[in-house]
Amino acid sequence: MAQSNLRREQIYGVAGALFSKRGYHATSVRDIAKQLNIQGGSLYAHIASKEDVLWEIIQRAASEFLGGVAPIASYGLPASERLRLMIRAHVEIVTHHLDDATVFFHEWRFLSTERERIVASQRDRYEACFRKVIEDGIRAGEFREVDAKLAALMTLSSVNMVYQWYKPDGPLSAEQVADGYTDLIINGLSAADTGGNP
Hints:
The chain is mainly alpha-helical and 198 residues long. It has 2 domains: 1-47, Homeodomain-like (Arc Repressor Mutant, subunit A); 49-189, Tetracycline Repressor, domain 2, CATH 1.10.357.10. The chain contains 9 helices and no strands.
């Protein structure tokens, strides 16, 4: 990797960790440079602005989510299995990239208006993948007759919050977290008679 590219990757890594822990506004260019042991002005040889760094981190996270999860929606599998794989992939991305996921979910609102619109469109596309699979499951009789949009939003709201409490050295592994979420969500949507109240 060229030295300039290596330095940019270091900047993105340090900035992601700082934005995640302190927040975008509370992190200065000087803070990022200090962590890299360089002068603040030297950072601008590699980046145009602090917002450009935030944009790059958020776009990388969006690419991870869309690239890792969206294709599963078109697999030739039952809807319940596709949804299980999608939730698992989402949780794995969050738990394996905690800093970037935190920045993606929490700091995107500090982007300029045009960039914010792009992120909103990406999030809409992502939600639509979950809604499609839930709709497929309803049509196939795998899932109960529910509001698919509401179910998709509930699913994403649940799994998105993993970044707020998951600890790599905590009592649950990433796999256990993924299994727990998939079981709870899919059992809640399942059309199978579980013997409970109607």
